Structure formats: structure tokens, C-alpha cells
Prior knowledge:
Layout: E1 3-8, H1 12-21, E2 27-32, H2 35-44, E3 50-54, H3 62-72, E4 78-82, H4 89-96, E5 100-103, H5 108-119
Parallel strand pairs: 1-2, 1-3, 3-4, 4-5
Amino acid sequence: MDKQILYIDSDIASYILISEILRNCNVKITHCKCGTSAILLFKKYPSFDLIITEIRLPKANGFTVLNEIRRIKPDIPIIAQTASVLDNMEKRCLEAGFNEFVAKPFDLNEFTITTKKYIQKEKNI
């Protein structure tokens, strides 16, 4: 069965790039353009295996997404990604509880390795 990724980013080009990078990884990617719609979708369908979210989002930022999704499914891996690397963003994200931080523009190989680390784990039964 394919792993399911919820990808949250208002930038369509980033979504297309991620889809292309992960094309051969047996994943199904669902895309949301804003934090609020992602939270609502996750509340309705909490079966995702991995969340990848931009920090700077319309309506609800990545930190809000992190907190709301963790209330529903505390152990789900959530990767932060952003071009906003000022103000110790990586440190802020990791301290807030994100599993990983990926700065944009990202190294394609590094991104793939980071993502595979979470989607290749077997689910606990």
C-alpha cells in the first residue's frame, strides 16, 4: 500500500517539484494551499503517514498546523520547509516539535533521503 503524504504549500511550483522528486517512491501526495484547509482535511482524514509543510502559509502558519495536527495524531512525522531562514528558523521549528527542517531551495537528494526516512518506516500495528 502506498504511503500518504499531506503536502502543504501555497506555491504550486513547489508541489510539482515535490511530486516529481517522490514520483518513484510509492506515495500518494495530497496538496493543500493553506494551513486552515490542511487542518480541516486532516481532521476528516487522519490516515496520512507524513506531513510536509511550508512555515509561511495563508490563514494558518506551519506552527499552527503542527500544533493542530499533533493534537489529533501526536506521533505523525511533520517536516517543516521554508525559504524563510532568518531568525533561527531551523532552531525554532525543531524546538516547536517538527521532526525535520528543510530550507528552500533544498538539495534534491537530501530532501529525498529525509522524506524516505519517514515513508519507508513500517507502521506499528
